[in-house]
Design brief:
- By secondary structure, the chain is mostly helical.
- It is built from twelve helices and two strands, in the order H-H-H-H-H-H-E-E-H-H-H-H-H-H.
- The chain has one domain.
- A hairpin with a 2-residue loop joins strand 1 and strand 2.
- The protein starts with a helix and ends with a helix.
């Protein structure tokens, strides 16, 4: 399978997981849902690695733990943003994380095309427009936008170390990432002591969210073996399209026309960046 298809597969897996997880966290608590999701994810990738029966091919896979720090910070901010704001606003802004790998590549000597530069401009302008909502006769920053921007930065800095680790061994990269994420979330749970018990149905759904996130991690890491970072990371960042579609279809979210235009512009920018 080509690196582009693997990266797109990651975006689909993340799109579903990043809709269901935050939706469940709205009523069941962010840390509680995140913890059981990590447990489910570690169990799934741990079983896959055990069946494979091979050790890591390079210590480079440990870079996935660096990606876990950025990714976990981004994921927590994303869940919290989804809890207080509209998913249709938060998801596209978080998806602007695609800017980080592009800028990273420029710093390393890459030269983006004119279309990619146009995509960067579209994404930035779209974020500004989507983040503003009407309140009476005044306009204000929409709820959750600040957290969405934090999520975008966290997700953006997830990509470079995860891409490097995935080149070495994507199976172990996914396991190291998910295990490190579980440790980080468990530490936050130990510090804040939220209630952890869930009904079996909710527990199963949280575990499936973790499996979906882990599948996305594994597919992205696999895409790194032969794909360019500036391409695979942006294609994987298309997950907000699915999340926004699910929010519209299931939650019937309704936004003002300028916000809808901003969301469309942001998503168009992400697509152009991948051109």
């Amino acid at each position: 399978m080509s690196s582009a298809l693997l990266a797109l597969g990651a975006s689909v897996a993340w799109g579903f997981a990043d809709f269901v997880g935050p939706l469940w966290a709205r009523t069941r608590g962010t840390l509680r849902v995140l913890l059981w999701a990590q447990v489910g994810g570690v169990a799934a990738i741990g079983l896959a690695v055990a069946v494979r029966g091979e050790g890591p091919r390079s210590p480079t896979v440990l870079l996935a733990s660096v990606a876990a720090v950025a990714g976990t910070a981004g994921l927590y901010a994303y869940y919290r943003g989804m809890a207080i704001g509209a998913m249709s606003v938060v998801a596209p802004i978080a998806g602007a994380s695609a800017l980080v790998p592009v800028l990273w590549g420029v710093a390393a000597g890459d030269r983006p095309s004119t279309i990619q530069v146009a995509g960067v401009v579209c994404a930035l302008v779209g974020v500004v427009i989507a983040s503003r909502e009407q309140s009476g006769e005044t306009r204000r920053v929409a709820a959750g936008v600040g957290l969405a921007l934090i999520a975008a930065v966290g997700f953006g800095f997830y990509f470079p170390p995860m891409h490097a680790a995935g080149k070495a061994d994507f199976w172990w990269t996914a396991l190291v990432f998910r295990t490190a994420t579980l440790v980080l979330v468990a530490g936050a749970v130990a510090a804040s002591r939220p209630p952890l018990r869930l009904r079996p149905r909710d527990l199963a759904i949280c575990a499936l969210v973790g499996v979906g996130d882990t599948l996305g991690n594994a597919l992205y890491a696999a895409s790194s073996r032969s794909g360019l970072e500036s391409l695979t990371s942006v294609l994987a960042s298309l997950y907000p399209i699915l999340t926004v579609a699910l929010a519209a279809a299931i939650l019937h979210e309704r936004l003002a026309l300028p916000q809808r235009a901003g969301i469309a512009l942001t998503l168009a920018g992400v697509v152009l960046i991948s051109a």
